[in-house]
Amino acid sequence: MKKFFSVKDVSSVADVVQEALALKAAPYDNQDLGKHKTLGLVFLNPSLRTRLSTQKAAMNLGMNVMVMNMDKDGWALETQDGVVMNGSTVEHIREAAAVMGEYCDILGLRSFPKLKDREEDYSEDLFNKFIKYCGVPVVSLESATRHPLQSLTDIITITEHKKTAKPKVVLAWAPHVKALPQAVPNSFAEWMCKAQEEGLVEFTIAQPMGYELSKDFTKGATISTNLNESLKDADFVYVKNWSSYQEYGEVYTVDEDWMMDNEKLSLTNDAKVMHCLPVRRDLELSSEILDGPNSLVIKEASNRVWAAQVVLKRMLEDLV
Ligand code: CP
């Protein structure tokens, strides 16, 4: 594996999940694979889970890890070609990525969208330039449009906790006070659509009118604006806020109550409730659910290690 950016970078969801679960059962079996290899994690935005779980995964594989908080500690990056750098940017991505590639065998990059210009964000220009100029395998730690390590974690968690062969999974929009990217729901949707193609899940998206995701990520999903109807027979509910894709980055007032609570949970098949975290308590998801027996959020976050470890393992195997 040379790149982990989307579901297209794995040939079989079922296979990568089984490999991740085998690593969970025997975390230190591949300690020699990463010996004398260095992982560099580059953050342009904050992180708790992605940062720590990917470091832990790399250490389980015997790798050395370096973390660069580019937003705080690095030079201001220029990403456009042909500009005279007489403004606030100090270093071009051509040199910055190439230099980091000299120090590292594998690089990870987190780069959020600006949510101003849809075309610019969805072109993934910065991410693609980083891949092009660094010259080593790159794992996405969340880009403008996707969060694949989170989505792989989510299907691992669903596989572990499912009670039927083909559980019903509902991605449910939830309220928030800020305009958030579509990266997590886009990514979850594309992984669930592929899992559905493989016969692993039945997938529904419930969101208010105006919050439809790009069709590029939702092919095959059942899409509804009726949350209560969608929750019927659900085995897993994946709660997440996102801003509008159509009116890019906008947040509309929603009249109905979209926060997941025990009343809505009672409509489901005793569903397990998931969220990528961080979560705004009693805004996106009720405390009674988060602190109750149906919440999977901590187990889900714990599984971030095995998603990162299987990806790094596949990359290391292709280095040698
Ligand atoms: N879910 C997730 O990516 O968490 P962090 O933003 O804390 O890494």
From TrEMBL:
Pathway(s) of this molecule? Amino-acid biosynthesis; L-arginine biosynthesis
- Enumerate the Gene3D superfamilies for this protein: Aspartate/ornithine carbamoyltransferase
Task: Give this protein's Gene Ontology molecular function annotations.
Answer: amino acid binding; ornithine carbamoyltransferase activity
Q: Where does N(2)-succinyl-L-ornithine bind?
A: E142, H176, K240, R280
Q: Which UniProt keywords apply?
A: Amino-acid biosynthesis, Arginine biosynthesis, Transferase
Per its UniProt record, what Pfam families does this chain match?
OTCace, OTCace_N
Question: Where is each Aspartate/ornithine carbamoyltransferase carbamoyl-P binding domain found?
Answer: 2-160
* Source taxon at top rank: Bacteria
Give me the reactions it catalyses.
N(2)-succinyl-L-ornithine + carbamoyl phosphate = N(2)-succinyl-L-citrulline + phosphate + H(+)
- State its Enzyme Commission number(s): 2.1.3.11
SUPFAM superfamilies in the record: Aspartate/ornithine carbamoyltransferase (SSF53671)
The UniProt record gives the binding positions of carbamoyl phosphate as S47, L48, R49, T50, W75, R110, H147, P148, L149, Q150, C276, L277, R304
Q: Which InterPro entries match?
A: ArgF'-like, Asp/Orn_carbamoyltranf_P-bd, Asp/Orn_carbamoylTrfase, Asp/Orn_carbamoylTrfase_sf, Asp_carbamoyltransf_Asp/Orn-bd
**One GO term of the biological process aspect:** citrulline biosynthetic process
Enzyme superclass (EC): transferase
Query: Which residues are in the Aspartate/ornithine carbamoyltransferase Asp/Orn-binding domain?
Result: 202-313
The record's family statement is:
Belongs to the aspartate/ornithine carbamoyltransferase superfamily. SOTCase family.
Task performed by this protein: Catalyzes the transfer of the carbamoyl group from carbamoyl phosphate to the delta-amino group of N(2)-succinyl-L-ornithine to produce N(2)-succinyl-L-citrulline. Is essential for arginine biosynthesis.
- The protein's assembly and partners: Homotrimer.
Please report the name of this protein according to its UniProt entry: N-succinylornithine carbamoyltransferase
Q: What is the lineage of its organism?
A: Bacteria, Pseudomonadati, Bacteroidota, Sphingobacteriia, Sphingobacteriales
